[in-house]
Amino acid sequence: MKKLLFVQSHPPHGSLFGQEGLDAILAGSAFIECGVLFLGDGIYQLLKDQQTTALASKNFSVSYQALHDYGVESLFCSAADLLARNLTVADLIVTPTLLDATELAAVLRDYDGILDF
Amino acid sequence: MKFLIVVQGGPYTSQASLSAWHFARAVLTRGHEIYRIFFYHDGVYNANGLLSPPQDEVNLHEAWRLLAVENDLELVICVASALRRGILDQTEASRYEKPLGNVEAPFIISGLGQLIDGTINADRTMTFGS
Asked: Is some CB atom of chain A closer than 8 A to the CB atom of B51?
């Protein structure tokens, strides 16, 4: 059976890449084993306590907490991307597996298909 | 080889859709197969049949339409992305009580299942983002 990796590389607000990417992850989870890689500014999608009311923007990030219920267990991010943004996993609403560059390459190789948002 | 082509950029706002169109033609020229072209995010704007650029500029909607008709391709746009951006066929326009639809065949409004199905069944997925 194939498995798909969804790559979230945009910050949560300012475009719909994150929200529509998450929609695709939820759809994918109904069909196939899925993983999610948060890359670069995409890691901001997992920030705790986002206050989006003043932006008139939807706080879709809370739905990441439900991924477990959809059977999506494999969440990844680059340890260097977190460090570069002065973040730790304690700042995030879920706990992704932290990867170094070699491990990141291995994850990309491990999946049969990659959908980039 | 079978390709799924994912278009996430709108016409005239990024290079994504024009590059995707060039890529699609190259795929066919080289004798490969296109499993499906899936329009997501701002890519759904390519389905807007009301696009009316000046005559000496490429009409991307028309370019996609011709490519699909001549090669019997599936042009699928995501319903959720399309509705929030005002891209509706006549059925959706009636359902949402809008004065007109702007999507006609060969563009088809469907769901994200078509994206997942394409990724599973194609040999390669090519995403044109922005």
From this structure: no
Structure tokens at A39: 């890359």
CATH topology (fold) of B2-128? Hypothetical Protein Ychn; Chain: A, (3.40.1260)
Interface test with A, best of B35, B38, B77, B116 (most A CBs within 10 A): B116
Distance, CA of A99 to CA of A81 (rounded, Å): 10
Report the topology of domain A3-116: Hypothetical Protein Ychn; Chain: A, (3.40.1260)
Minimum Cα–Cα distance from A24: chain B residue: B112
Residue type, A85: R
Whole-Å CA distances, B128 to A58, A101, A106, A113, A116: 25, 24, 23, 15, 9
Q: In what order do the strands lie in the sheet with B33-39?
A: B107-110, B75-78, B33-39, B2-7, B124-128
Q: What ipTM score was computed for the predicted complex, to two decimals? A: 0.90
Domain boundaries, chain A: 3-116
Going residue by residue through chain A, which has 117 residues, state the pLDDT in tens, using 9 for 90 and above. 789 999 999 999 999 999 999 999 999 999 999 999 999 999 999 999 999 999 999 999 999 999 999 999 999 999 999 999 999 999 999 999 999 999 999 999 999 999 999
- Two structure tokens written together for B77: 């746009």
